[in-house]
Amino acid sequence: MKRFLFAVLLAAAALTARAQLTIDITTSGGRQIPVAVLDFAGEAAQPQAVSTVVGADLARTGLFRLVNTVGVSPLPTEPSEVNFIDWQARASEALVIGKIEPQPDGRVEVRFRLFDVQKQSQLASFSYVVAPAQLRATAHRIADVIYERLTGEKGVFSTKITYVVKRGTRYELQVSDADGANAQAVLASNEPIISPAWSPDGSRIAYVSFDQKKPVVVVQNLAQGTTRVLANHRGNNSAPAWSPDGTRLAVTLTKDDISQIYVIPATGGEPRRMAVTPAIDTEASFSPDGQWIAFTSDRGGSPQIYRMPSEGGPAQRLTFEGTYNVRPRYSPDGKSIAFVQRESGKFRIAVMEIDSGQVTVLTDGSLDDSPSYAPNGKMILYEAQANGRGQLSAVSSDGRVRQRLVSSSGDVRDPAWGPLPTN
Amino acid sequence: MKKIVLSIAMATLVAACGSQEVKKDVPVADRTTPTTQPTTGQSPTTSPTAQPSITANPLTDPKSILSKRSVYFDFDSNVVNEGYQGLVQAHAKYLVDKRSLNVKIEGNCDERGSREYNLALGQRRAEAVKKVMTVLGVQDGRIETVSFGEEKPAANGHDEASWAKNRRGDIKYAGE
User: How many CB pairs under 8 A join A and B?
Assistant: First the structure.
């Protein structure tokens, strides 16, 4: 017993060291905005170099190219100190400068400014007073501001992702920053964990646990670490999906029949069956306006994607190409659905524009699964197979940019991208 | 939360009792328990928690077909093949005889396709096995069907040889 405990402890220690995901960009296409991110004055004395994190965040999107900043001395910290002619000569369109100053109470003030180099004008300026341990998070917030000013879209650098890591017979549900840093196990089990789904406010994750030797839907509060069984009926309980207002979850149950979709109040209670069909209905996804539930059904003979009104009612088939279209996920703007499509024995992530029915295949793997949109709709995180094990990948929703989230060991699977932070 | 802890503790207790009982009883009771007993009237002699002990023998004896528990399926199929009808029928007959026993049928899939749709497919496989049993007279309420989808592969390879081993339904008796 002691030896077993020791092994578990060892495994846990090794895990925190090895679990980190690092992100590689494998492809990027289209125009990239040249941006110069200067070292922030005073950051060398801090535990975290803010400018490095900001630059890495921007570069990882594939939408920016970092301009060489070597040899800039002294570092400008005020607008009056910026030599715009020099930055125009370096062909940079945007410039980021900043400084970090220790405060008497032990915290630090981080100030940054973003400039349009051509217009020689300031686009943004913010200051944050934070604990030194918060510098990485602050860098992500700065990158969010820069991204939004330069692209017009919300940045997602301050968001979190969750995913399942399988190592041997051990499963862990992990939560990390969107860049893979600060990975933490929020749940560990010797039974499978699948289908994690963030509550819209990011405070809870619903998932399917097999701890009771069968699939049961559990909701875990992340801050408190408490869990509550949401659905444990006879048979299977699976595929949790939150309504956009967080008050209800759609789940798949087999208590009355084969797999059918039910809705349960988030606080628990009696499941309400949404449809009665003689086929498999599963993998619900609420539309962002709460009006619809997209789902997989094989009522037509092959699994296809349908939608029905979220209060119940007749379903409408959405996919018609191919014989295997499953696992729908609404885009944050509600205009598209990402899903898994089988084509010639390969399983890939595709996106369908709902109004036109236009389908675009985004990935080229063989066993791609579990697409999950970033909350700004620009990237889709998914599970892929590489060298016989699960690895996370991401693709931009226009297919141009591809990233791999590399983990040094274990099977990494079933990702879900968390919501934008609420503060 | 307290309730959960309590029920886990209770489950552990029950499980512990069950396994102790099996250990104690197996050498003595096993081979003397005739499988040809009348179909009714045997339950008064045992308490519900002692069930595993009376059933241990035929279900674990490698010479008995009842020790075989897996039904394998073709790709994309939930039809119980001819080759496995005999196995399922034997379990059905055993369940008809041993009215105090309940079973769980666990459906499984290979790794291809989405996890949740596979979970539903595994369920349909489990239901197909159950259907054979209910047609032969086992009451519906005694058979729980669940699915592990693609989560519990018997073989870990990424080829047809492994996939074929993973498309299966496993018959598990209560308490096992």
Answer: 96
